[in-house]
Design brief:
alpha+beta; Phosphorylase Kinase, domain 1; six-stranded antiparallel beta sheet; three-stranded antiparallel beta sheet; 25% helix
Length: 157
């Protein structure tokens, strides 16, 4: 298995985008599982882009909101380059395959959650820059007897 930053062991690939690949990774000492994004080498070669990535990661790591995935670590691996570590969201994409249209009530609930997340990051001076269905996950929150679908905005940087 490949190690990133001397702390994270990559187990499986979760996805791939224009800026890099996202992996399931386990913190070696803590045993906790996270999502780890490795920035692709083309992007990482540009000092300005790397600087912007680090600045955005630092700002985003200070954000706490129930609809925003937490960034827990970021850094630069000597071999693999820049990386960002986020909480791993267990859930499904906003638009899962094979599902028909959603009810107006459900759509409104999800749009309110997305809007609250975007408002929160904008007030912190952060622009997400890539809001799309692929970067929005739905997880289930249980509060006593009540279950609710929660929007989770992902993929900063």
């Amino acid at each position: 298995m490949q190690t990133v930053g001397g702390r994270y062991e990559i187990t499986t690939q979760l996805g791939e985008g224009g800026m890099g690949c996202v992996y399931r990774a386990k913190h070696i000492q803590l045993g906790k599982v996270f999502a780890l994004k490795l920035i692709n080498s083309t992007f990482a070669l540009h000092p300005e882009a790397r600087s912007r990535f680090n600045q955005e990661a630092k700002l985003a790591s200070e954000i706490t909101h129930p609809n925003i995935v937490s960034i827990v670590d970021f850094g630069e691996d000597e071999t693999l380059g820049a990386y960002m570590v986020m909480e791993l969201v267990e859930g499904e994409p906003l638009i899962p395959d094979g599902h028909g249209p959603m009810s107006v009530k459900r759509a409104c609930d999800l749009l309110i959650q997305i809007s609250e997340a975007i408002d929160h990051i904008h007030r912190a001076g952060i622009v997400h820059g890539d809001i799309k269905a692929d970067n929005i996950m739905l997880s289930t929150e249980t509060n006593g007897q009540r279950r609710r679908r929660m929007v989770r905005l992902l993929d900063f940087g």
